[in-house]
Amino acid sequence: MRRAHAVEWVRAAEGELIARLPEGTLMQRAAAGLAATCAELLREGVPGRVYASRVLVLAGSGDNGGDALYAGARLARRGARVRAALLAPARVHAGGLAALLAAGGRVTDDLAEAERADLVLDGIVGIGGRGPLRDTALPWVDAAGRGAATVVAVDLPSGVDPDSGAVPGAAVHADVTVTFGTHKPGLLVDPGASYAGVVRPVDIGLGEVRGAGADGEALSTGASGAAGRSLRGADTTPLLLDGHVVEALQQEDVAALLPAPDAESDKYRRGVVGIAAGSARYPGAAVLAVGAALHGGVGAVRYAGAAAREVVRAHPEALVGEGGPKDAGRVQAWVVGPGLSQDAEAERAVEEALDAGVPVLVDADGLRLLARRGAAPADALLTPHAGEAVALLAGIGVTATSAQVEAERLRFARELARGYGCTVLLKGSTTVVTGPHGPARVNPTGTAQLATAGSGDVLSGLAGALLAAGLTPLDAGSVAAYLHGLAGRLASGGDVPVAAGAITAALPEAWRRSCHSGGATG
Ligand SMILES: NC(=O)C1=CN([C@@H]2O[C@H](COP(=O)(O)OP(=O)(O)OC[C@H]3O[C@@H](n4cnc5c(N)ncnc54)[C@H](OP(=O)(O)O)[C@@H]3O)[C@@H](O)[C@H]2O)[C@@H](O)CC1
Ligand SMILES: [K+]
């Protein structure tokens, strides 16, 4: 599991550690890890490349600038030609600047340095950043973008809000982000995530406060090697309990959650999912949702609704009926809403599915009908895109636009989960799944190719099947998003447009890759 911690937590952990360590230790660990990564990037392609390479440090007024200046000093000592642009000269980190100058680095105000650099270190602002990037930084950020330099963000790309991933103005587009101690939520959630490039965590010892590696994954210890050492001496009490706010499933997590039939399984024990979707006029959503559900690990798929004939023609495996959910026979979970329209019959289907006493996934038209109720059963899973989220928010008295929802996905997903009292999967560039409490899950496998007609119907059928197979709404939603994203990537082969049917066709391969070791998270 990849985990991200809020700024408040990072600051508290840092405070505890600083009290135990000689002054400046954490910053030196950060700088060492940062310099090691920069050296590696400079060496890529050209052996011995650190020597005589051109490095530009963009140093803001806080400790983020300090990290960048100390890392610059380390690179200068290895023969790099390092220049530093001081964006707030009166408040620059004095120790970092002194170290850089002593190592042979120089201060510059020549913007051309940004265009001809091999590597730019973005130390403008880190977890202390609030609001849009300030004007003094903009010409440097533009110039670095024009040049061919590899841009390395220190802790996070400047201009990205660390806790929400919002990007309220200009921001640095990084090729690599070296982040300290733990991921910050803004690195895992769009739009911020799309500015971060490849994220490389560096262990600076914050993991000790939880008694485990900061990420539950292998971390670089940086050049000093000190970061990997246990800081527990006489006092073995963990400093703080784990308090991550965002997590992203990795392949091994998905493997552990996927339902697997055992020797005793028959089709009813594996779970039966019911699908109330589509209409006589729009049968496509029903066909797609049923098709995906058939690949979702259940023993059987029941369809209830007006598109029964089309469904059975496309999927002879499905058990179909033309009535509503109430007349459909036993299921372990319902999917209601895709392509349903919003007439009285659709309203009845939603009511019946919600009253069936089993977990229910509500999507599309179902969500618009649910918004009128303003509440959902605790074991419901709502799967809105930003536009549907706006309607749901209105149902609980919150006014927001689609753009606002997309800019602050974590916040609005959580608001919906709390308001409706259930689990919410907010679709989009980073799909977020969250209940009213506990960490939110963000999906690491998404691709822009998934934004295609019918793709949401596939996701609904798949997630509904996982619900029926016994997964919790949080697990069903996040595992389905993971498989759906991976199937989209497989179907598109990178950048070829995909149709929803091709996503379904790739689900078995996505499942196979996810349940075996050596899988697929990008
Ligand atoms: N925590 C840890 O464990 C460790 C933390 N470490 C490092 O410290 C970093 C945090 O340092 P920090 O607290 O000094 O804040 P930082 O991010 O440098 O920014 C504050 C300054 O930026 C300014 N500013 C604000 N918004 C701005 C904007 N939009 N655009 C431009 N400027 C803006 C703000 O100015 P002011 O509002 O005061 O005018 C203030 O002066 C952290 O990210 C990591 O790199 C590591 O060394 C080791 C362990
Ligand atoms: K930064």
TrEMBL record:
Keywords: ATP-binding, Isomerase, Kinase, Lyase, Metal-binding, Multifunctional enzyme, NAD, NADP, Nucleotide-binding, Potassium, Transferase. Its cofactor is K(+); Mg(2+). Residues 10-212 form the YjeF N-terminal domain. AMP binds at K427, G428, S429, T430, T431, G456. InterPro entries: CARKD, Nnr, Ribokinase-like, YjeF_N_dom, YjeF_N_dom_sf. The keyword Kinase applies. The keyword Mitochondrion does not apply. (6S)-NADPHX binds at residues 63-67, 126-132, 155, 285, 339, 385, 457. Transmembrane segments: none annotated. Coiled coil: none annotated. It holds the Pfam family YjeF_N. Binds 1 potassium ion per subunit. Bifunctional enzyme that catalyzes the epimerization of the S- and R-forms of NAD(P)HX and the dehydration of the S-form of NAD(P)HX at the expense of ADP, which is converted to AMP. This allows the repair of both epimers of NAD(P)HX, a damaged form of NAD(P)H that is a result of enzymatic or heat-dependent hydration. Catalyzes the dehydration of the S-form of NAD(P)HX at the expense of ADP, which is converted to AMP. Together with NAD(P)HX epimerase, which catalyzes the epimerization of the S- and R-forms, the enzyme allows the repair of both epimers of NAD(P)HX, a damaged form of NAD(P)H that is a result of enzymatic or heat-dependent hydration. This is Bifunctional NAD(P)H-hydrate repair enzyme.
